[in-house]
Amino acid sequence: MSGCCSHSACDASAASPRFRQALWIALIVNAAMFVVEFVAGLAAGSVALWADALDFAGDAANYALSLTVLSWGLMWRARAALLKGVAMALFGAVVMARALWAFQHGVSPEPLTMGAVGVLALLANAGVALMLYRFRAGDANMRSVWLCSRNDAIGNLAVILAAAGVFGTGSAVPDLIVALVMSGLALWSGLLIIAHARRDMADSEQVHP
């Protein structure tokens, strides 16, 4: 398989107990942080926090789906990754539209809440990303899991920078710019996952015509 190991090796890696345990930890962390960031985002009036909270929710769903298909064949894992890629791309498009709307109607968020929650989310996601780093070169399903955790850590750094920008300027613009960047990253990553999943599906068809 292009960019991966042999099919049998990838299948074994994807179904390994360590990968399954890592997914369970990632699922619990993301579900908990979704609740924290969603409440904080609404309280602070931050589009970036709100976007990051929805990203946590999407990632928790992705991890649950990944756990479901671990023992399935390459074709089904690729189909699951394709579904996740489409969901990630759609999420990016929705958040981008929401941020553009907020440019015209939004008010300045509360920066201290943004910064504190951003730091907490960064610590959570950095730990998950480090835990999943070893699995980043697997099939499309495993790669999508790594991309989710990596994007979250990047997004958290951006939220912290946005909080500093809002605090320094008193404007909502830094918050909205970060929301746009995060939505663009989600859209691009979703397209990468879709492309990888399609390659895996093509490889599977060659092995099992």
TrEMBL record:
Subcellular location: Membrane
Domain of life: Bacteria
Membrane disposition: Multi-pass membrane protein
Residues of the Cation efflux protein transmembrane domain: 23-199
UniProt keyword annotation of Coiled coil present: no
InterPro entries: Cation_efflux_TM, Cation_efflux_TMD_sf
Stored SUPFAM superfamilies: Cation efflux protein transmembrane domain-like
Coiled coil regions, renumbered to chain: none
Cellular component, GO, one term: membrane
Any one GO molecular function term: monoatomic cation transmembrane transporter activity
Keyword match Disulfide bond: no
Keywords: Membrane, Transmembrane, Transmembrane helix
Transmembrane segments: 23-50, 56-74, 81-101, 113-133, 153-170, 176-195
The protein's name: Cobalt transporter
